[in-house]
Amino acid sequence: MKPIVTFFGLFVIILSQSILKAKADFPPLHAKSFQVSRPLGFIENKGQFLDQNKRPRTDLLYLFQRDGMK
Q1: Contact in structure between 13 and 30 (CB atoms under 8 Å)
Q2: Do residues 62 and 44 touch, judged by C-beta distance below 8 A?
């Protein structure tokens, strides 16, 4: 009887370690990934930024633009 209990205990320990390692290899379910189609930082002004009258903005050196903010 004792060898069966020992074998079962070792089996449970090995199985639980395998499950924990498998969970560590996958990203968490709440993690979200996204594709970046634009630069992630500041954009240097080389004359491409215009005001409402379509004139170049010389007062801007850099612009940071993401969804919902500029």
Answers
A1: no
A2: yes
